Amino acid sequence: MSTSAVKNYPELVRKSKLVPEAELQAALAELEREIGEAPTNARQIANRLIEKDLITDWQNEKLMQGKHQGFFLGKYKLLRHISSGGMSSVYLAEHTMMRRQVAIKILPPARKDDSSFLERFHRECQVMASLDHPNIVRAHDFDCEKERLYYMVLEFIDGKDLQRLVDDGGVLDYVEAATYIAQAASALQHAHDQGMVHRDMKPANLMLDKRKSIKVLDLGVARITNSDDESSLTLAHNEDVLGTADFLAPEQALNSHHVDSRADVYALGCTLYYILCGHAPYANEKNLAKKLMCHQVGTPLPIRDDRSDLPDELEEILNKMMAKKREHRYQTMEEVIEALNNFSINQSGSPALYSRISPAPQKNPTKTESDTIKGSQADTMVAKAEPTPADEPAQMAQSTPTHSPRPEKQAAAEGASVQEEIATGSAVPGNKLKKAAQAAKTSTAKVEKESSSSKPPLLIIALGVLILLSLLTIIVLLVAGN
User: Is 200 a catalytic site residue?
Assistant: First the structure.
């Protein structure tokens, strides 16, 4: 602890701008009333600010080191460090206005001058932003601070990855494991539909949130399969093997740059093996080269040595996912989901995955005035119909109202769209109702038009009948007159 920090702790807090002055003064005054004198002990002051959720432990640690800068990145306040790797560091952060928690992935400053690392970081953000699936972590933003700190703003998942879950609590129940893998398969199918292969699927890249929903993480080495220039997130790097050796498909070890979606099927199978056994298929082999060779020709450690009661059906699924030759595996993730669903139904009466086996949504679906209700009413209806964990703002010390189901749309509304609403008058409730009515009218007209093309109009039929009756009446009168 810095001596200067101890003496000037309140001043450091002020310089950091972490705590509004009024709240800092209130906390100091409250502490002074309790101890009977002006507080001077840095730890005592820090503990009070932490108790009142005005600062975090991580922020306090930096303040105690005499640091008062580096707590803000753009419009986000950094709360704590989550993890670091060769490619990036990840922090938990909070939007200063919306109080929404996010994860911020920062490219190390030392990497910014390496064009291939920066290009990979850019492309990863583009990949994340192009995917929209409830089991894939969402990308919210990408920016650069002072031309030296490049960062990506991601959905924050409060939970544990499957590796930690198993390491801390032991292997998973069979149906539970099938459910998690089916959710991951659904996410990967969506990525495959967009022409992407994950290439680094493993338990550590599957996060389980508080609602027992799986989120796929880390598309840092994903390959874009439908690009003419064979674009991938590896770019100019010289890696011979990309991925994690314990979960690497045989063909990926030979050539990481030309794998297809079936490599993810194999890796997901190895992940299923891990959460059932508590270790990787070739955990007994410590040498990297030999481990890669095991994926080519070796036999995994017998799973029944760890789980003697493993259902035959699940073992068959596992073996097919981990087949050495990719043509012998499930050819798509939809096939994996179907197999896991059948297993789960046989075991528990319920499928592993309910309604997510469906065609991938169009990237840019065409919307007309007849099928789109503009404004917050439409957003609210969609949010209520399909709630996801990511749609709810995190509860903070100063919480945001919970009536806004989509904070990312609220952020847009507080920005440029406010100007648009004022200019167009769409901020007036009556005008929104008018727009909704117009949309409904257009939709009704469309239905009527479609109906008229398939059925004879009733009015024409009725007129025809009346004319026929009139003619018959005239004929009868003429005959009677004669």
Answer: yes
